[in-house]
Specification:
By secondary structure, the chain is α+β, with helices and mostly antiparallel strands. It is 47% helix and 10% strand.
Length: 345
C-alpha cells in the first residue's frame, strides 16, 4: 500500500463493516514479530481488541485504513511484516513516482512490476496481455506463510488502485485468481474484488480488458502529493468512471478519420449501435462532438506547426468539407485564425 498520513485523533468515518478481521489479525502478527504491543494502535483505530479473537468479525474500510497507516509508521514497514525485509516508509510512494512519467498504463504497470522487485524478492510481479485480456500476476518466490492472504490481496488491490488513479478511470476486473483455498470470510471477496474470484487457482492474478493498458497516464507530481495524503483509499473505494470507450473513440477518430463522418459509421466500426455509443459516452462524461473537436484540433495544430501544407489541404485532412468551415472552427478552439497560429509559433 502507498504511504498514507493517518489521523488517529479523528474517529473513523462510519460505513459498513465488510473488511475481514483476518487482515487486522495479520497486522497484529507483524507487531508480535517485532516484539511490540498492538493494543495502542487498535485503540487509535477504534477497533476493540476482543475482535481479534472473533474470526467472523468485520471492521470498516476506514478502520482498516487507519490501522494500516498507524502500523506502517510504528513498524516502519509498508509491507506490514509480509516480507523477509522491511519496506521503509515511503517505499510504495517511490514506486508511484517512478511510474508517473509513463506515457500509458501498460508502461506504468510494467515499471511498477519491475521496480517492486527492487523492494523485495519474496514475490515477483509481472504483466502480460493476450487475446484481449491483461493479466497482472503475483508469484510467491518465498512462502508467505500466515501472511499469504493478507499480502496477496493487499498488493494486488494496491496495484489496481494505483492503475485506476494514474488513468483516472475505474478499471473493472474480468476475474481474480488466487492460489489459496476459500477462507472462512469468502463472502468478503465480493467487496474486495469485482468480477468472479477463483480460489485454488494455479497462480495469483488479476485480469481485465487489455485495452486499458493503452490509456494515457493523466497524473503529475502535484496530484501525487495530494494523493499521498490519503493513499490507502486507493485500495478501498472504486473509481467513479470508466473511460475505456472514450479512449477507443479518440483513437479511432485519430487513426481512422474516414469513420468520423457520422455517429452511425463510427458506431458500426466499434461494433455497437449509435444509440449505445452516445449513451455510454454520456455515462463517461463525454460527447462524440467533444471528442471530434478535440482530435481535430490536435491534428490541425500538428499540421500547422510541422508541415507547410496549405489550409485547404489541412482542412480536408482533419475532416472539414471546406476551408472556411475549418477556419471558423479553429478560431472557436484557439481564439486565433490558423495562419496567425502558425506564424506565432
Amino acid at each position: 500500500m502507498v504511504s498514507p498520513k493517518p489521523t488517529p485523533e479523528q474517529p473513523p468515518e462510519q460505513g459498513r463493516a465488510e473488511t475481514p478481521i483476518a487482515f487486522i489479525q495479520g497486522i497484529a502478527k507483524a507487531y508480535t514479530q517485532r516484539g511490540l504491543r498492538v493494543e495502542d494502535a487498535l485503540k487509535k483505530a477504534q477497533i476493540e481488541p476482543k475482535l481479534l479473537k472473533k474470526n467472523n468479525a468485520r471492521v470498516t474500510a476506514m478502520q482498516m485504513e487507519l490501522m494500516s497507516g498507524i502500523a506502517m509508521q510504528e513498524l516502519d514497514d509498508e509491507g506490514l511484516g509480509w516480507f523477509s525485509r522491511r519496506l521503509p516508509w515511503g517505499s510504495y510512494g517511490m514506486l508511484v513516482r517512478a511510474s508517473l512519467t509513463s506515457p500509458t498504463l501498460g508502461v506504468a504497470l510494467a515499471r511498477w512490476c519491475r521496480h517492486h522487485g527492487l523492494l523485495t524478492d519474496d514475490i515477483r510481479l509481472s504483466l502480460n496481455g493476450s487475446n484481449g485480456i491483461a493479466t497482472l500476476q503475483l508469484d510467491e518466490v518465498r512462502e508467505l506463510g500466515v501472511f499469504q492472504e493478507f499480502c496477496v490481496v493487499s498488493v494486488l488491490r494496491n496495484a489496481l488502485g494505483v492503475a485506476c488513479w494514474l488513468t483516472d478511470s475505474r478499471i473493472p476486473l474480468a476475474a481474480t485468481h488466487l492460489r489459496f483455498a476459500p477462507p472462512a470470510h469468502v463472502d468478503s471477496y465480493r467487496v474486495l474484488f469485482d468480477g468472479t474470484t477463483h480460489f485454488n487457482a494455479p497462480t495469483h492474478c488479476l485480469q481485465f480488458d487489455e485495452g486499458y493498458l493503452d490509456l494515457p497516464v493523466r497524473r503529475d507530481e502535484a496530484a501525487l502529493q495530494q494523493m499521498l495524503q490519503r493513499a490507502l483509499l486507493l485500495t478501498v473505494r472504486p473509481y467513479r468512471r470508466d473511460r475505456l470507450l472514450v479512449e477507443k473513440v479518440r483513437q479511432t477518430l485519430a487513426q481512422h478519420p474516414e469513420h468520423s463522418r457520422n455517429a452511425d459509421d463510427l458506431a458500426a466500426w466499434l461494433n455497437m449501435s449509435a444509440r449505445t455509443l452516445h449513451r455510454q459516452l454520456q455515462e463517461e462524461g463525454a460527447s462524440l462532438q467533444q471528442l471530434k473537436d478535440s482530435v481535430r484540433e490536435q491534428r490541425a495544430r500538428e499540421l500547422l506547426l510541422r508541415s507547410g501544407k496549405a489550409l485547404k489541404q489541412i482542412a480536408t485532412e482533419v475532416g472539414f468539407s471546406n476551408e472556411k468551415s475549418f477556419i471558423r472552427a479553429f478560431k472557436t478552439w484557439t481564439g486565433q485564425a490558423p495562419e496567425a497560429f502558425r506564424q506565432s509559433a
